[in-house]
Design a protein that fits this description.
By secondary structure, the chain is mainly α. The protein has one domain. Helix content is 75%, strand content 0%. It is built from two helices and no strands. The longest helix is centred in the first third of the chain and has 29 residues. The protein is elongated. The relative contact order is 0.16. The mean pLDDT is 88.
Length: 72
Amino acid sequence: MLTFAAKVILVLLMLFMVFNLFRAMFAMLRNDPSKPSMTHYLGKRVFYSALAMAIILIMLATGLLPTNPRPY
């Protein structure tokens, strides 16, 4: 059950990263100084991708995410 929950969290993080990428695009096109800049959304995207990588590494270290012993 823990593995399923972690995978759902990872998928939601990936979707949130794509969402922030599109928000950065619209902020770039809008160019409104009163609203958050494009770098604000891109920074969030980088933070959540680092968080996703940390979750993947923790799952690999604890054995919750099995690796492929023979990838070819």
